[in-house]
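Onboarding guide, step 5: your first structure request.
Type a short instruction followed by the sequence, for example:

Predict the 3D structure of this protein.
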Amino acid sequence: MRYIQRKKEEVARLDGTVQDIYKMNPTLLAYYTDGSYGYNPFAIVNPIAYLHEFGNSKYDRHDASGILKLDYKIFDGLKFTGIANANYLFVKNKNQYKEMHFTEYFTQEQISVGQNSLSDRRDDNYYYNIQALLNYTKKFGEHSIDALIGYQQENQKSSWLYGSRDDYPTDLVGEIAGGSQENWKNDGNASHWAIASVIGRINYDYAGKYMLTANFRTDGSSRFSKGNRWSTFPSVAVAWRVTGEKFMRNTSHFLDDWKLRVSMGKTGASSGVGLYPSYTTIGIGKVILDNTYQQTAYLKSIGNTELGWETTNMVDIGTDIQLFGNRLSFVFDYYIKNTKDILIGLPTPLEYGFGNTKVNIGQVRNKGWEIELGWNDNIGEFNYNIKANRSNNKNKVKDLGGTGPWKGGYTEVGLPMNSLYGYQAMGYFQSEKEIEDAPFQNVKNKPGDIRYVDQNGDNKIDGDDRVVIGDRNPHYLYGLRLGGEYKNFDFSMFFQGVGKKDYIMSGPGIQPLTNGGTGPVFKHQTDYWTPDNTNAKYPRILDSTEGGFNYAVSDFWKINGGYLRMKNLQIGYKLPSKILAPVGLSYARIYFSASNLFTIDNFIPGYDPETNNAFTYPLARTFSFGLNVNF
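The system replies with structure tokens like these:
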């Protein structure tokens, strides 16, 4: 059994306030000279006041789970196992917002911003997983068999309830009942899904040299209608330990283990299109008739009864090698995945009125490799280990079922899924004459604006001139672990990163004077176009009220979003046993740990390469000390 409670209280609208701090003009007032909060009559009033006075958000999470397992030996080699796993999750989230009061310093005018309001949401989630398994193991000389057959069922039910009121007479009241009934709101919903599976597996091993694993599973998902609910997914894997052969004995002085592996199989997916894509759903709403609210029911989505499982066929070839007394390790895999009948919401015209139609359509191929190298050794009393890995995956759309291209996240046959789609830039307009001679782009164009390529030759720049300008999928992912021990001291380090990922910069990090011209100009934006700085990094400065045509999605703003980050460093010291024994301890270790120590990337300040979020609550750099003790 396990029970965990997590409680958190923080500033209401914290992420939005952090964004405002980034976006606000540094010359705007935070405090008046008398210590009161400054009032700025713009889109961003005063983030400092918001941090202290706007309200709070309380989060209370209760997570209870338990596992019951029963093993029963039927006879020698045959065992029955029953497993029941249940989880209950309850979350309460309360947000209280307060009316803030400012006094204009010079006129002494009293100004109120916002209003006293409160929202309360409760979420309940029930999940259970039951398994009934029969397992048979047997050895016949150098042959060994391990077979399993069983049944598994997963079930989850979720519900939520929400209520809110405003116009509280005071911000001291923290319950729903204290607010006005004039503008109250309430809402709620429930959902359910289930998957049932019949599973089987057999492992065969001969003399530790030849290995075979065969699997099958038949799954049924509640997301699909009865005629398409079930599908079977088989797989098989074989391995050969080459070093187990007699002809390899002469290599034993340097080659400790060498295994070749081949596997192929089929897997399925049923998620990604909601819980009820096969069913026509009804929505509930309201309409005003005769000056009163009347409840209505309407068709929300049209179900697709032919919808079925998305399937992936995969082939993997790999090898595992241990060399030089198991000091050097090498693992390599190459795979091909062909996914078909992809579950997706097919773009439809707005006139359709029921949102994207959920269909099985298209085919995508993924090809990639993974490599890992490790070295374990010592220099005298210093033991150390190094492990590095790198991988890459390329995907290509093979078929869209006669549809496409899809422009929501640009997808076209022959290209990676969700390619970057935008304008191709060709530098800046350097003169009025260049603007006059170029295809028409914008009536507000001036020298220093970004110039785009007229792809279709119609002498104007519009949406039809957008092309694929990059691949947003990450490539050449890598990681590095370093560790060592010297006497009672130890250390470990972990680095991770991405070699290449096309990313389009956007937002206030590239566009100065946002929020109606009241936003800042960051230091890195001061290298902007002027007649004396025609090779600038940024186009001419534009107030955001003048338009955002220089900041349309284009390869002008494309960077390599790859990065290297030191994720963790830990240094420890084990206390000698002669110190521990008198106080009844068998083990004690003190340590220092640090996370997110540094990042090397091409992003401008304010962006996090792991999340691609700009100007939100920054990733924390954490330093901690700890003590591990065994009695």
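Each response can be followed by summary notes, for example: The helical segments are 14-23, 47-53, 432-437, 514-517, 577-580.
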